[in-house]
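Please check this record.
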Amino acid sequence: MKAGDAVTLEAGSKKIQIFSSKKKAPLIIYHAVMGEGKRLWQACQDIDCPEFSLAVINGVN
């Protein structure tokens, strides 16, 4: 998987994007408005955040 690529899963009406760290790292879970996941992941990479994986859950009311 290239940096910025996500695995996408669906659970009912929820769309879940998983952005994985290449190393063993904490998992951050974020409830988002559709389309925010990749932008958030890229912003964190741009400022050189410590390694983490990101699960973005879209469609949460």
Notes: The CA atoms of residues 25 and 52 lie 5 Å apart.
